[in-house]
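Loading example: each entry is read as two labelled lines plus one structure line.
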Amino acid sequence: MNLTIAALLAQDGITNGAIYALLALALVMVFAVTRVIWVPSGEFVAYGTLTLAALQLGKPPGTVGLLVGMAIIAGVIEGWSCVAIGQARQLPRRLLMWTVLPLAIAGLVQWLAPLHLPFPVQIALTLAAVTAMGPLLYRIVYQPVAEASVLVLLIVSVAVHFVLTGLGLWFFGAEGSRTPPFSAGSFQLGDLTVSAQSLLVVVTSVLLIFGLYILFGHTLYGKALRATAVNRVGARLVGISPNLAGSLTFTLATLLCAFSGVLIGPITTIYYDSGFFVSLKGFVGAIIGGLASYPLAAAGALLVGLLESFSSFWASAFKEVIVFTLIIPVLLWRSFASRHHEEEE
Amino acid sequence: MSALARWPLGGAAFAAVAVLLAIVPLTAPPFWVTLGNYIGLYSIVALGLVLLTGIAGQTSFGQAAFVGIGAYTTAYLTTRFGTSGWLTLPIGFAITFAVALFLGFITLRMRGHYLPLATIAWGISLYFLFGNLDFLGGYTGLTGIPPLSLPGFELKQERQFFYLIWAIALCALWATDNLLDSRPGRAIRALKGGLEMAEAFGVDAARLKVIVFVYAALLACVSGWLYAHLQRFVNPSPFGINQGIEYLFMAVVGGAGSVWGAVVGATLITLLKQWLQDLLPRILGRAGNFEIVVFGVLMILVLQRARDGVWPWLARFLPRRAPPAVREAQELPARAKTARQGPLLEIDRARKEFGGLVAVNDLSFEVRPGEILGLIGPNGAGKSTMFNLIGGALALTSGDVRFRGESIAALQPYEIARFGIGRTFQHVKLIGSMSVLDNVALGAFLRGKAGVARAALRLDRAEEARTKAAAAHQIARCGLDAHTFDPAGSLALGLQRIVEIARALVADPQLLLLDEPAAGLRYQEKQDLAALLRGLRRQGMTILLVEHDMDFVMGLTDRLVVMDFGEKLAEGLPAEIQANPLVVEAYLGGVA
């Protein structure tokens, strides 16, 4: 390996790592607020790419059908719960939020899909359609079990991963998709050719990470979300609704995932089931940060990206083995770094 | 789930199931025998998960990888070196044991969710490793695995194999059922939800979790070994992460709290999968892995609506056994009671800081043998923190705690328990689904020796009888005999506090630490409790009592230490304390 190849691999690794970092942050955020280990995050990455790819072709994306289905289920659940607790007066407002709004987004995407609108509009539509599924997923699946143990929430997450993968096959089909790069240009940095695409990915990721840091560390709102994570009852007593916090977190996290999907589309071919591995690589990063620290999680994800890129050069057949085995030394290190810690369920 | 519902089936049930299974291969068509084989193989894996997930509160998505180790070990050794199939099982065990021990050791010391995440990653790694190693045949795998053979007889037919699979499955069920009803079993059942309590009675929880994980991994390994000799070829696909997830679904759907849940879950999921794989392509008009949508939805509904799975619902239709009466038995070995001059427990400038807050500020006092010492103070004075420093639940910032002259400040709670310090908890910590008898018997953990192997093989019955007798004795002493077999969770809070005292007493302690034992008790119950404690003192027990009910404390204790804002405000006889103006001010507020 010479320096040029190394530089090229590093550039690849950093680009991928930046995307994993976005995911790692989404995972840390969801865990911090809702205690959910959000395994199915990767499905939304895949949905993001596949939605954008469909819009590129002027076809209505499978996301529309998914969104309609989820909106109807959420509407039924809301209707049922409003009637059950005798608050029928709240029903119109809730239906507006949980059913009409998502249906409107789905309708909009369906209507605009064949028009071959400009690329930025397609991206906006993609983000809107995929992100709308986040709060719906929280409402339908996680809210009814929000008080359960981390373990139960994790098993639920894995079940959701199964469901979303199967539905992804149904709604998007088995073919893989790639989206065109945002920018085809490149520029020289000494000997190294840096593609504008890579630079765009890295810069966007850094901006988003900084935004999250400001949101959670320095705004009352972010602190309220964190308080929910520590003590749901206590948060409720001081006027923070855990359900609202949960759906907001899922909205934000799904937006990050959809964005990752848009960013990763030009780099790799994405299939309906590609998301799982992408999210797991985010998890390896997040675990390096102990599922708690945002900067460490981002750094960990970057490390995963670099490791992946270099191991695909040396031992491409063992790429996944190497990346996922990284978790072992990481856990070993964390195990010795932290005092015996117990969890009361 | 009540304690009774856990054991509705005894030896008779095992016999009935065995007879039923014996008939299947003789009468059923081949298709059903094949299905029965798979259900048996899956049940063995799911059984490990029932123990790990449903009972110990840990989980693994990587069981399929352990199945893979069992299968590939025998496949490689038998095809490459012609090793006997019977010999490869212990070798598979050894490899599984080492891997599970390592994974468990690095993950189980930390919070619960690292193990499942590690098992996902490890499950994926191993799948790709199987698929990329040339000597294991890559993704095509290994073929030509010889059948298992007995002298003059080869297990080639599926019907013959059915007996082997189910014989092993029933043995595993029997052993696991035995394990749950034993000394280590009680500790395992306490891991989920009662970890701090179990440690206070000498259970090394981290070690026990690793043991349970290894146990589950070994069961998965057996299943893989059987699978390889049934199929006679292996490739990586049945050992991937999706299969690992399906195993967990089996355990959860079946009912992760009972050994029979494993069989029910494996049966349901296997049949459902078979049916869906026929049905879905016809409905949907195209082929694909669509049954995972149904599994996922089913799983979510089970966890939302019926977290205990299908088994508890089924168990209601089965006859119940009355719990066996507790028989008299020889006493458990008791601690040597040596008289010693000087204090039993010395607190030497103990200090605990939480960030900037000093909860306990260089506090010193001592507990003398045979006395009841009351530690009192207003709310927030730091009493419970001091208590947790003694029990080891919190680490001291500085200072020392000595028991009979020996420092226990740096020890873990389960190590401190060995010194003969028994305790109760401010917030009652009982396993609600276990009977009062089982809860109290957990207190005798350190007085027994039976380990997992002896318990699983039912070689622990003599010791178990002595433990139960000792527990029943303490239950009677505390006046709870009427509730011996009731689930602890069904008792009123006041009685639950008394159960905690009985549990502490059965540990044969030298020092009893009681954290607000009178809280939530009615007047008469308080009188009874005081009488019980006085009786214990007469028999030479030393008691440290944290309380803020002044009436209760004044009539009972020999001496008092008063805390306020983490510091010692006063120390002395109850009458002196009552007259102390500082104490009056702390309790009633200053004179305006």
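Residues 165 and 273 of chain A are 6 Å apart (CA to CA).
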